[in-house]
Amino acid sequence: MLKKIMIWIFSVVCILLVMVYSIYYINIEQEPEQMICYKGKLLLQLEEGESIYTRAKGVTCEYENGILIIEEQS
Q: Of 7, 17, 19, 31, which alpha carbon lies 20 to 30 A from 65's?
């Protein structure tokens, strides 16, 4: 009887921990990046902490092995 109660308590605690953990990481606000490469165009963040971007003219960009490569157009 005591073993069954302990198993139920342990199960409930585990479920609650998983719920709290997932809710915490779902609700974390992620800081927007300052530069984004989108379809070969470089986008620059206008204001810190805001997700408003403008396109940089005269440059192209691409991601290669996790590195942002920016090239000047001719």
A: 31
Q: Range of 21's domain? A: 1-30
Question: Are both 41 and 67 inside the same structural domain?
Answer: yes
Q: Is 9 left (phi over 0), alpha (psi -120 to 50) or beta?
A: alpha
Q: Is residue 4 located within the same domain as residue 23?
A: yes
- Residue 43 · residue 56 · CB < 8 Å: yes
Q: Does the model's pTM come out above 0.70?
A: no
| 39 in the same domain as 23 | no
Counted residue by residue, the chain has a size of 74
Per-residue pLDDT tens digits for 33-46: 788 888 988 888 88
